[in-house]
Amino acid sequence: MRLTQGTFSFLPDLTDQQISSQIEYCLQRGWAVSVEHTEDPHPRNTYWEMYGNPMFDLKDAAGIMREVDECRRTFPNRYVKVNAFDSTRGIESLRLSFIVSRPREEPGFELLREEGPGREVRYSMRSYATRRPEGHRY
Amino acid sequence: MNSVLKNTDANGCFNLEAAFRDSHVADVLDQLDSELVGLAPVKTRIRDICALLLVDTVRRQAGLSTEALSLHMSFTGNPGTGKTTVAMRMAEILHRLGYVRKGHMVAVTRDDLVGQYIGHTAPKTREVLKRAMGGVLFIDEAYYLYRPENERDYGQEAIEILLQEMENHRDDLVVILAGYEDRMERFFRSNPGMSSRIAHHIAFPDYTAAELLAIADLMLEQMQYRLSAEARAALEEYIERRQALPHFANARSIRNALDRARLRQASRLFAKLDASLARNDLMTIEAADIRASRVFAETPPTAR
After folding, report:
1. Contact criterion met (CB < 8 Å) for B102 and A64
2. Which of B118, B121, B168, B294 is most buried, with most CB under 10 Å away?
3. A52-75, pLDDT tens digit by residue?
4. In what order do the strands lie in the sheet containing A93-101?
5. Between chains, do A63 and B129 touch, taking CB under 8 Å as contact?
6. B260-279 residue pLDDT tens
7. Is the dihedral of CA B230, B233, B235, B241 positive or negative?
8. Do residues B40 and B202 make contact, with C-beta atoms less than 8 angstroms apart?
9. Do B197 and B16 contact (CB within 8 A), yes or no?
10. Distance of alpha carbon B160 from alpha carbon B184, whole angstroms
11. Residue A63 is nearest to which of B104, B123, B133, comparing CB atoms?
């Protein structure tokens, strides 16, 4: 199952050229771009691991593309995303975030049902991948 | 229409002039000529480089082979000879000719590149390189990167990363090293790898007294001050005396001298609080403002 999250979740995966143009757009707006990776693709997992610090004061996308490539090479079997943070007063949050790399195989999610008192059912979901310990998931 | 046809005339000949006009690089060259006094050899070299890049661009349009040009440069000269200013213009020129994508300049010194403990240098240097991408990285006093007297110095690490970057990412950034001539020479001698990767060595000559006076005029015009006739004579004498003293930093010394003259002018005006001031009084620097300098003292020991 192909995981979709973030700004371009409705599109097929972006090519490097397209990623670079998106980053260029972010830099023009003065947003700080960062690269993050994770092994836990749960949609509510907002805290991915940072790959290096967020990059401030960059003018050109080449530097960030290099960081993305390095992250992909270091973690070929993890999800990698690019975030753009807008520090403008009153916004101070992510403006853009999209997945740029994914594991070869994505097992998808399992729907869990929990019986509560009086026929109540609670639903939750869990990635099949997270059954295994970290570092052995993909 | 493809770019091969863009700069060709009716006979299918390649038109260098059109390429020159399209790049709008003439504006920057004119600005360089009008804003920077003297520096004739530097200006000639920059025009040479411009011509080379332009011909290279047209050659590429003509489908001729063009080797990837190495644009890394070294600017050598005494302090205050305009190395940083020229580097900024260079970034602009390279941008207009399409050799760097953004045309900004990141100026750094040893402190920005070299870390304080093991494993600190590489990320620090890479950080700076990332910021400079698409533009020009200007390393002031580059020879401080290399400290042969301390073999555990991390400067060498920064140099190696720089070299790697200069070689592998030529189209991402241009590196300009700057510093005093003699020390830069020693630096290049002990780092032959660095020397061989730098194509353009540009030497900045010291300014003559007349040029320094012209620079002072230019600065005053920007600050909206003017010199009285006696003050001008005093400044001429000042420059002559100052040049002979140690720690003379060319245009920078002139700027400092003018700043101090402004200070004295202000306190002179302030001393007569009750007098009404004309616009002219606020603008004029008198001979006394300049002659009060330490440089005019009888025996100046180590005046700055």
Report:
1. no
2. B121
3. 999 998 999 999 999 999 999 999
4. A49-50, A32-38, A79-86, A93-101
5. yes
6. 999 999 999 888 888 788 88
7. negative
8. no
9. no
10. 17
11. B133
| Nearest-angstrom CA–CA distance, A6 and A128 | 21
**Tell me, what's the pLDDT at B3?**
43
Task: Indicate which of A33, A60, A68 best probes the interface with B, i.e. most B CBs within 10 Å of its own CB.
Answer: A60
The CA distance from B160 to B119, in Å, is 14
CA dist list (Å): B8 to B17, B199, B251: 10, 30, 44
Sign of CA dihedral B1, B2, B8, B10: negative
Q: Name B288's Cβ contacts closer than 8 Å, sequence gap at least 6.
A: B264, B268
Rg, chain B, Cα only? 24
Three-state SS string over chain B comes to CCHHHHCECCCCCECHHHHHHHHCHHHHHHHHHHHCCCCHHHHHHHHHHHHHHHHHHHHHHCCCCCCCCCCCEEEEECCCCCHHHHHHHHHHHHHHCCCCCCCCEEEECHHHHCCCCCCCHHHHHHHHHHHHCCCEEEEECHHHHCCCCCCCCCHHHHHHHHHHHHHHCCCCCEEEEEECHHHHHHHHHHCHHHHHHCCEEEEECCCCHHHHHHHHHHHHHHHCCEECHHHHHHHHHHHHHHHHCCCCCHHHHHHHHHHHHHHHHHHHHHHCCCCCCCHHHHHEECHHHHHCCHHHCCCCCCCC
Quick one: pLDDT at residue A23? 96
Three-class DSSP labels, A23-82: HHHHHHCCCEEEEEEECCCCCCCCCCEECCCCECCCCCHHHHHHHHHHHHHHCCCCEEEE
pLDDT for B4 equals: 43
pLDDT tens figures, B127-154: 999 999 999 999 999 999 988 888 788 9
Beta strand pairing status for A93-101 and A79-86? antiparallel
Q: Which of A55, A59, A64 shows the shortest C-beta gap to B104? A: A59
Handedness of CA A96, A102, A106, A112 (dihedral sign): negative
The residue-averaged pLDDT of A26-36 equals 95
Contacts of B129 in chain A (CB under 8 A): 63
The CA–CA distances, whole Å, from A43 to A4, A38, A79, A98, B219 equal 9, 12, 12, 13, 60
d(CA B99, CA B57): 10
- Report residues of chain B scoring pLDDT below 70: 1-12, 298-304
Which chain B positions have a beta carbon within 8 Å of A59's beta carbon? 102, 104, 131, 133-135
